[in-house]
Amino acid sequence: MTTQPQTISMRQTAASHKRRLVWERRLWKGLILTILLIGAFIMSLPFVWLVSSSFKLEEKIFIFPPEWIPDPFRPQNYVEALLYKPFGLYFFNTMRIVTLNLIAILLSASFCGYGFARIRFPGRDFWFSMVLATLMVPYFVLMVPQFIMFSRLGWVDTFHPLTIPFFFGGGAFNIFLFRQFFRSLPEELADAGRIDGCTEFGIYWRIMMPLCKPALATVAVFTFLAAWNDYIGPLLYLRSDYNFTVAIGLATFRGVMRTEWNLLMAASTAMILPVILLFFFAQRYFVDGLVLSGLKG
Amino acid sequence: MIMTTHHWYDRLSPRTLAGRRTLVGYIFISPFILGFLLWFLIPAGVALWLTVHDWNLISPPKYVGLKHLGSMVADDRFWQSLRVTTTYTLVSVPLGLVLGFMLALLLNTKVRGITVFRTVYYLPSIVPAVASAVLWAWIFNTEYGLANAALRALGFPKIAWLQDPQWALPALIIVALWAFGSGMVIYLAGLQGIPDVFYEAADIDGAGRWAQLRHITIPLVSPVIFFNLIIGIIASFQVFTIARLVTNGGPQNATLVYVLYMYQNAFQNLKMGYAAALAWVLFIIVVVLTLFVFKYVGGRVHYEDAR
Predict the structure, then answer these.
(1) ipTM of this model?
(2) CA–CA separation, A254 and A179 (whole Å)
(3) List of chain B residues whose C-beta atoms are within 8 Å of the C-beta of residue A38
């Protein structure tokens, strides 16, 4: 494009062209915003329906067209739902499993990840390819033999099958994530440690671990999410009511409450709420984890 | 230092530097190696052994050779579960990929409120599967559910979502698509990694939006699309919780997904051998599919550093 229009008419066309571009851009933005708004409306409708149903009187559940703002407004649904089954105990059980998984995974996966990332030794690449191989094997492929093993060990109806395996490596995905993170740290730090007489374990624990708080936070967030949301594990291994997790509690609550949808929605909301709160407080780590797994894979 | 001969065990001996490093390295990765043996190799061996046995966990196991493979071929419910899972995968994975990618494109245009949008679209993908199942069972309620309320408001007749064999699987696919936002976050990061200069250069050359999308954006995020495709296929072959809690495989096995059928065999009919055989078939299917995708789609993926 010429910078100096020679005639008035050319200057005019340039100006109108520019105006058209501005309008086109505005139109385009408006279109995008409209699509996004419609999509967001559809995506959030189930949430609105969930929360609205959870505050309704039972009779008000079964009317058409549905009443969006509950009248009467019944927060007691939550009390009734959460007291109907010992959800407090379920919550406590789930948090025990979550805590054990956090300890297991954060220690074990970072430890292995450090070995894969920063120490060169024969066989390392072979074992790392085994990490990647286990990453590709679906959980359900080994579900039956693992169940048989754990029941032979007498672990059925205990938390062991849901916690102890994580002390051994903490899951291929988490090892991978820590390895990626450790590789991004400068080797000079480790060298400085070595000169000061630090052992490799000292370097891992005192120098590298404090630097990898973002990776620890990301893994912690996903560990919590996995344990809190897990259904198949508790379904297979937890038998007694007093051992149930929130997920299994909600699933059996659904079996008992066939039509009391308001109470079911209250219990579901209560189960979703911690996850949403976690998302709002740790949003960054959710995104980091997804990106780290997706882009650098 | 005087070193006359090298033995293979020198590499493991803590007396040499390399040996010490090897030892330390193996100590670091030992939790994984132990876990790999205990929770992976041994179960895989047990699974192989189970495949050729009949065992209900109570009476002693009986060797049956390849009987399970034969009964699989003649098992209608096995074929039905394969059909259901394949349909589910073929519909939900491509739709999820396209929707996630388009959404990321829209969000990448620097519109206002991107964090709000990102949150709204992403949240459904972290909702616990059990809670999601309970919620959607209510949404798909024929008389008072949200889905039919919406249909009726738009003037359509109501659908017996979870009772009609024709509609039960589409209902489950809708539940899966509600969570399509997890891929969007990955795409978005990929899109934001594309340098602006590429688009500026294309602008100067007079390339339109469509040409820019086809020749710049899609090639540069193709590794991410590919990654999401593989993950999506593996995950959708393992769909279980929603199918078990919303429809439990019904009506008329219309939502009998593969893993649910395997679960029923193992833990309801106590056919451990048959379930293990089903698991091996699942494994082979996933491996073959992954290799297939690598071969036929992987070749089209553009890698920046492999020019």
Answers:
(1) 0.88
(2) 41
(3) none
